[in-house]
Write a structure and sequence with these properties.
This protein is mainly α. It has helices at residues 7-10, 16-25, 28-58, 73-78, 83-117, 157-161, 165-180, 183-196, 201-223, 226-239, 257-265, 280-313; strands at residues 126-129, 136-140, 151-156. It has a three-stranded mixed sheet, sandwiched between helices. Helix 10 (226-239) runs antiparallel to helix 11.
Length: 316
Amino acid sequence: MGVFVFLPLVLPLTAWPVARLAEQHLHPRSATRLLAGVAAVLAVCSTVCLGLIMVVGTAQLPGNPLPDGWSDPEVRAAVPYDEVAGKAAIPALGAVAVAGGRTAWRHVRVRRRAARALAGLPGSRVAVLPDTAAYAYALPSRRHGRSRGRGRIVVSTAMLDRLDSRERRALFAHERAHLAGHHHRYLLAVQLAARANPFLRPLRTATEFCTERWADEEAARAVGDRRVTARAVGKAALVTGRAPLAGLASFAAPGPVPRRVAALLGPVPPARSLPPALTPAGLATLVAAAGTLASALSSVNATVALFLVLQAATPL
């Protein structure tokens, strides 16, 4: 194990360059999948690392609830440990568990609130709510299967009143893209990852932006006019106040709206999944992939090593 068990805690730093370059040089669909996947793997490895440090560092302390064989002198010699790091890992792991649990519970609570707001309305794919506040968001379905549908689009009358017919088409196409692409899963994954390791927050921010850009591109393709979609995004951002249900993908999501409009006024992004290797984005992707692989290998190596040593030290 040695120092390698600490690597997953800092290896998320290797993904910082790709967080910004991916959203600039990759298609938003590819960037979303890449960033969310890297963030999820690094977060799992980081959490495993904290668990290993806690077990190794506290197994030698008197009064711990672990088996006595784990504090045997032979185990001390075979498994490097640090009591300070082990003690610090306990509150850190507890904080990760609490923060992750709160994030997951908040996600469930928001979806339940949205579902209650639609109670009694016809079960159509689009729900129009009479409201003076302008908003629009995609509510994923809690049911699975083709016959269950993929969710509903919720929009207020105030939002519809501020858009013309073509801009409304862009709005609905944008929200349908959120539902069809299951963007809520990517958003939840990066939110949990950022709770597990603060170094992953840039990936969360970049993924949130890329999901909106992904939906923007799908809307522009469905409408057939990038300028109309850009105008709809800009107008919606101007009239939208605070999101009524934070955490759901929405048409005028808070964030760098001017960058979304500027991207829509530019050319269609390339459809390639990965950038060329000999470009800044390609090099950043390789660095992020190498860091992710190193984090995974370090976690697996430390876990297997600790398991084998402790299994030998624990009587049947």
